[in-house]
Please model this.
Amino acid sequence: MRGRRAENLTNDAAACYHCGMEEFRHSHALGQNFLTDRNLLAAIVADADVKSGDTVIEVGAGQGALTRPLAMTGARVFAFEIDGRLEGCLRELEKEYPALTVVMGDFMKSDAAALAAGPYKAVANLPYYITTPVLFRLLDDPMCEGVTVMVQKEVAERIVARPGGKDYGVLSVSAQLAGRPRITRTVGRQMFTPPPNVDSAVVHIDVCRRGDEKTAAVVRAAFSMRRKTLINCLAPVWGKSAAASAIEALGLDPAVRGERLSPEQYIELAKLL
Ligand code: SAM
Model:
């Protein structure tokens, strides 16, 4: 990794706890808050229910703290890492586990599904600056059958939020249409090196995919203009009268806003439009 992101390095320098790499300066811009607690790492692998024979995609391997217990399960693991400074460390780990493949590069530009070549589970301590795009990418991928990720606690609360609350939004609806999200554990900032400014949580989503592409399009439209009513958000795509009839058929207030509808109501709405 070169350029702007790699330059934004923290002042703390820590040795890698398993390969002995010294003086690694964490990149704040790349979300490099590493884990070292083996019990916590084992608990994340257990939350993900990774077993021998599974295929796993890890986004952001860092120094391999989570990669190692994932590989130890006997699963086929594809571990993505964007920061070239970590390649040596990860290649050492790769030599220990024949079923581990380290992929150096940007996960968002990769064809992860083609690499996995079948159903896979995604497990990661996510770099916080790209949490939402990574989550949407995984949830949109028909080959992804489970997601277990460390995210900021606030993001975890948004993912599991129910309609009407302040945390409920497009991420909640999308995650709850994709599966059954639940917070498996909260993790204090002191568990990371360096510690971030916020606490974190592990979210596990058993992916079962309800709703179709049209439902996803309706959800996107409904949350495209947060302050507008649902009718006004849907009107540019489906027309005002079709939007009004569908909302009425659902027995909803004509002035309802998108954040009042449950994922189940979005499925019905998409059928009606
Ligand atoms: N898995 C390690 C751990 O738990 O200690 C590291 C997790 S750290 C929160 C996130 C990692 O993601 C960093 O090593 C960072 O360099 C990497 N990363 C950031 N952006 C990435 C991207 N677009 N594609 C792949 N890896 C990325």
